[in-house]
Amino acid sequence: MATFGQIIFASMITLIVIFSALIILILALSLSGTLSEVISTNTLPVANLGEDQLLSCFLSTKGQPAGLTDVAVTWEKTGLTGLVYRYQNGALDLADQNSQFKGRTQLFLDALTTGNASLLLRGVARSDEGEYTCSISSSGGGGKVNIYLRTAAFSAPTFKFTNGTLAAEASRWFPKPNVTWSNYDRLILPGNTSFTSNSAGIFSVVSTLQSINVSDTYTCRMENDLVTGISTVTVAGTDVSGNTYFTYSAASSLPTSTYLSLTTSVLYIYYVT
Ligand SMILES: *[C@@H]1O[C@H](CO)[C@@H](O)[C@H](O)[C@H]1NC(C)=O
Ligand SMILES: *[C@@H]1O[C@H](CO)[C@@H](O)[C@H](O)[C@H]1NC(C)=O
Ligand SMILES: *[C@@H]1O[C@H](CO)[C@@H](O)[C@H](O)[C@H]1NC(C)=O
Ligand SMILES: *[C@@H]1O[C@H](CO)[C@@H](O)[C@H](O)[C@H]1NC(C)=O
Ligand SMILES: *[C@@H]1O[C@H](CO)[C@@H](O)[C@H](O)[C@H]1NC(C)=O
User: Global pTM?
Assistant: First the structure.
């Protein structure tokens, strides 16, 4: 049976352990408060072939004002010899830049002191597809983030209405999309779609829908594994107006290395009486 002294002793030990745990927790919280991390607003961008694409990368600092100094940025591509881009010691350092990226890349130098190291890639080609790593180091901390760039071709269709038939014509799609027409009630309507491909393998798409009812609204959906273009088309008299927006698929068949890995830290309090 425990004596009064033993109970007091055990209580004291318990209190000491609880207070130690609290102090460790507070220290951990205040330390993580000054930590910085490198993040991207889009780690899975889909670039439109031939157009420019921004690869987003920036340093996010908690409670630290802008005005970073000693900023160094390196952009690399997995499997590539040399670099995509490098800025260090206050200047561009493109000596090791791979020829694939010569004259096609740009950093926003004015934005570097705010931690923005986003890279503009001009005239995206299919060979640009792959995993990029953006590394930042600065007076306010640093880190790295991986971005997986995918490429596709997509363009908004234009619409024509003649003799009761509504036609959607889109000049650039890759991979080959499918086309689905539906009415305001989301009922699928039978359309006729044909494709022609150019020498670069890019498809032009023509899809028609017959027996249109004037002053109705229709939806034309062009979709492949990467991009979906949704057009809302309103026919009024002989006028036809269409509005298109694009959505991009999230992870499809990506290498597992690009998936987020979560780390969980567990604090064990080991107490033996
Ligand atoms: C970084 O700069 C680019 C180019 O000015 C801009 O488009 C982008 O929104 C900026 N990103 C952040 C997080 O400020
Ligand atoms: C318009 O449609 C009508 C009936 O559907 C058809 O007889 C006529 O040939 C069509 N005209 C044209 C220019 O396609
Ligand atoms: C598709 O086109 C063919 C040939 O032009 C035509 O005979 C058929 O009726 C069309 N089908 C639909 C659903 O518009
Ligand atoms: C137009 O309206 C008629 C009658 O409501 C319907 O049968 C037809 O499917 C409609 N056409 C289209 C393209 O929705
Ligand atoms: C169209 O293509 C997408 C992506 O490849 C696919 O998920 C969808 O099932 C297809 N839809 C039709 C109606 O074939």
Answer: 0.77
